[in-house]
Amino acid sequence: MASPLDAPLQPPTGSVLVRLPILGPDALATLPAVPAPHQVTISLGDPALRALVAPGTLEALGYQLVGAHDVDGLLLPEALVLVRAVLVTAHTAWMKRLLARADKAWDLDLGPARMIMRSRIERHLAFAAAA
Fold first, then answer.
1. In a structure prediction context, what are the per-residue pLDDT tens digits for the chain, which is 131 residues long?
2. Would you call the peptide bond into 25 cis, given omega within 30 degrees of 0 as the criterion?
3. Is 19 strand, coil or helix?
4. Can you count the helices (H) and strands (E) in the chain?
5. Residue 52 is part of which domain span?
6. For residue 124, which of 33, 41, 45, 131 is within the disulfide window of CB 3.0 to 4.6 Å?
7. Residue 48: alpha-carbon gap to chain centroid
8. Are 12 and 84 spatial neighbours (Cβ–Cβ below 8 Å)?
């Protein structure tokens, strides 16, 4: 019998995964600051994108970099941000600013979206489990 510790990590209820195309050198440094005291996780579709921002810039904005994610035929450089329900519901102005920069968002409460994006959110979930 499998242990609960062997179960795959699941995103918290109400989580949304937001895809941000990286269309210019200042795209990451100009992300909307996450409302304090919250923090979100961000992964990059290409580790080279990290060079676009000075060390500490993402963290100062409230984004915890968790590394690179799988890209499966990536056409444009991208970043993925995992947003918890409290930010989605309690900080709607911030969420709207983030979504204005996005080209796609997935409601991770929906099983098919969670399954399709599983390989891309694993680093986010592992970081949250370790924190």
1. 443 444 566 888 999 999 999 988 899 999 999 999 999 999 998 888 888 888 999 999 999 999 888 776 666 789 999 999 999 999 999 999 999 999 999 999 988 888 888 888 888 888 877 76
2. no
3. strand
4. 5, 5
5. 4-130
6. 41
7. 17
8. yes
* Domain count for the chain: 1
Residues 6+ apart with CB under 8 A from 42: 58, 63, 64, 65, 66, 79, 80, 81, 82
**Rounded to whole angstroms, how far apart are CA atoms 131 and 65?**
13
Cβ 19 vs Cβ 105: under 8 Å: yes
Q: Where are the beta strands (DSSP E) in 49-108?
A: 63-68, 78-83, 104-107
Handedness of CA 48, 50, 53, 55 (dihedral sign): negative
Q: In whole angstroms, what is the distance from residue 58 CA to residue 115 CA?
A: 28
pTM score > 0.85 for this model? yes
Give the C-alpha separation, 99 to 18, whole Å.
Answer: 7
